[in-house]
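stuck on this:

***
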Amino acid sequence: MTQIEIDKRPRLQKLQSMFKIKAIMQTANKAMEETLDGKDLNIAELNRLICAAAMVITEEINIKREYKLETPRSETPPWVRRIQESINDIRKELSALLEIKRDNRKTQNIKRTRLLKKYNIEKKENLDQVTEVRKQKVSARMQRLSRYRKRQNQYYQNKLFKTDGKKFCNCLRQTHSNVKNAPDKEEAENFWREVYRKGVQINGEEHWIKNHYQQNPSMEWSPVCEKDVAEAPRTTLNWKVPGRDQITNFWLKQLTATHKQIAAVFNKLIEEDQIPEWLTAGVTFFIPKKREY
């Protein structure tokens, strides 16, 4: 594949997580093992290889049309739809039973006969009992739906508290950005460009820094291993916005054949203390905040 500059790489498409994708990943990992066998690549060469593998796999899936790329999903969870459908079915029967109770002839004879036979209704007392049971079932399912939604919200808040405490607090406050007279794009970029250009100066003569060095003269360092590389992206989101190299966490998780080489490359970077600029560069997104923040 022709080498493409990092800043000119195309954005890789998001793939739907499907079981059959594992077969393609297994084939890709075998090919990667053969390619990396006996080679000593630097961080740039390894990054190009991972990007090339991701692009080839994405193109292969698009050509075969075996897997769909991003199918629209309903925002309502399946368990909510099931309970709501059950409630709607019971309400339909309840409505028909109430019409029968009122002796309304608008209800079709076939429907009347089916309901009377289904619930073995022979007397008006039985009809009242069946109607009351239907009402209680609707109430019970509504309470279950409310209880499940409350529990789902608790699970979401617990997870959010562990991963992003600031977002969790904002979620509890229900704060929304409402900025008036926001700066334009050029003004904001110039402001933050000046902030980023200034180098960080540390006063090494502070007494607390000297005390810290005396108490901790050296830090034990252990080399990065293949297990560390596999566990690092495990808790991250698959399709989170990538860096300049356009490689998302999904490909770092799935291309396991590169983990050993990634560990070796990072150990070499730490020992030589020579980190390329593109590896530490990032993208800044401007998010409006309220004045008190």
